[in-house]
Amino acid sequence: MSEITAEQVAHLANLARIALTEEEIAHLTTELGQIMQAVEKVGEVATPDVPPTSHPIPMQNVFRDDVVGDDVLTAEQAVAGAPEADGSRFVVSAILGEEQ
Amino acid sequence: MSEIIRLTAAELGAKIAAGEVSSVEATRAHLDRIASVDGAVHAFLHVNDEGALAAAADVDRRRAAGEAFGPLAGVPIAIKDVLVTEGMPSTAGSRILEGWIPPYDATPVRLVREAGMIPLGKTNMDEFAMGSSTEHSAYGPTHNPWDLDRIPGGSGGGSAASVAAFEAPLALGSDTGGSIRQPAHVTGTVGVKPTYGAVSRYGSIALASSLDQIGPVTRTVLDAALLQDVIAGHDPHDSTSIPEAWPSMADAVRRADVAGVRIGVVKQLDSGGVQAGVRSRFHESLALLERNGAEIVEIDAPNFEYAIAAYYLILPAEASSNLAKFDSVRFGLRVTPEGGGTVEQVMAASREAGFGPEVKRRIILGTYALSAGYYDAYYGSAQKVRTLVQRDFENAFAKVDVLATPTAPTTAFKLGEKLDDPLAMYLNDVATIPANLAGVPGISLPAGLAPEDGLPVGIQFLAPARQDARLYNVGAALERLLEAEWGGPLLNRAPDLSSHEMAAAEEGVI
């Protein structure tokens, strides 16, 4: 199960939106194989009768009233650290490429 | 070296309250120390000179006007760069956030400011808290004040080193798998990971949301307790924050007494895999506690050996999701490929340029562990191991009040030694990870120096969830007993950095 190919790493990098270089993909392919081999150890004790735990301190239904709080950021504050903004909105690159 | 910077936070706070030292004097003394030694230590990514002096002057003025403050008011504090700070850059050690100034304060930062404490600046860390040595910081490593060629631990090596080098009396850290406790171990300082949910995670740049916890980094157990008393408590901004009120940890320190306390030694973490000097100091501490009335019991925790494997599935899975927010739109770096590109291409180019190798490694690993067809085998199985580790803790705490382990298997290793071997690096966290998986609190405090290399060794105690006060009780009792044997704090034996600085300068002249 721990056989990881360079094609898989390239696919994962695409899913994770990281433009890895060929060299990085080659390096990561070897490393991921080794790491996955080590972490597969969990399968030794994770038998069907053991329930999974997602959260260390169980809590349920943490609700609050659906009202605007008194310490929300203004639009200007929210966009202040953006790479590109028009004062109150984030500016993004084109969503579609030319061929689309 | 100025007397002011040798004081503990509790002592400094008392002197400020008594009017013997002003907050401005205390802040200036620490800024001077940073200016003289941080070139060698590199604990800070940003020093808040003007802001700190202005905040200190404000506290002095308000105190003179009769305002009442808590015990740490006027005391300077260093802040791990994982916490967002209004008006101060916050990078989490990553190139992708270089120069970003957040528009708000993380809750723990707001609380220390409200307590009258003075943020000195932001401390270095492994990028997005992924690492055990600070070598994964995009801004270069921090150096261990005990030996500048060695790692200060990680990910919070900057906070621990700043405190060990007397650049700050205390600091804030974050602990996802040991990032507060392991740096404490290798720098001869005190670090506490509170119960998960004790301190708000609001404004803490998330690594793994079900594991992250903010906590104190200090030189004494009392200082850690005083700081936890400031930062703990329910926060409506963090829905995983525990709603119940907390008892005073400082009171637990002042009443510290180990008579009748049952201490469990985890068999699986007291093995031949631990460096001889780390293990001998551990057993000496246990013997000292036993002579003072504690009962030492061996505890079996068979599933702890699966904790690292589970952790390195759960953490990358959660991190790959949390780090999706670095999309070159709302904050941080934007890199446009040559000739332009779609938002997707810009995002991929920005993340390629902005993330370091360890962050890429873990994002890809997490993406893999969560992908269709592998989810049950990897992430699902890791969550089951999490249940098993929790059960080991439940069984243990049915027999004992606290558990004890060496904090980490070795003393500080050389910078560069494990950088190219991620699996060896991950093993540093073998004793600290179980607490994060189960949400229980842990403390590391100095247990002495390893005879073979003269480097600091820590001892870790773990308590049931919500029983943080037990850690402060046992920790403070052991600290008192050990310091009586040593004739003072362990850090008194740390090398004098100012002479190192002078020597380095002289060499430079020649």
Brief synopsis:
The complex is a heterodimer of chains A (100) and B (510). By secondary structure, chain A is mainly α.
Write the layout of secondary structure elements.
The complex is a heterodimer of chains A (100) and B (510).
Chain A: H1 6-15, H2 22-39, H3 75-79
Helix pairs in contact in A: 1-2
Chain B: H1 3-6, H2 9-17, H3 23-41, E1 44-47, H4 49-64, E2 76-80, H5 107-114, E3 118-123, H6 157-164, E4 170-174, H7 181-187, E5 190-193, E6 214-218, H8 221-231, H9 249-254, E7 262-266, H10 276-291, E8 295-299, H11 307-322, H12 343-354, H13 357-369, H14 376-397, E9 402-406, H15 422-426, H16 433-438, E10 442-449, E11 456-462, H17 468-486, H18 497-509
Parallel strand pairs in B: 2-3, 2-4, 7-8, 7-9
Antiparallel strand pairs in B: 1-3, 4-6, 5-6, 5-10, 9-11, 10-11
Keywords (chain B): ATP-binding, Ligase, Nucleotide-binding, Protein biosynthesis
Organism (chain B): Agromyces salentinus
Catalytic activity (chain B): L-glutamyl-tRNA(Gln) + L-glutamine + ATP + H2O = L-glutaminyl-tRNA(Gln) + L-glutamate + ADP + phosphate + H(+)
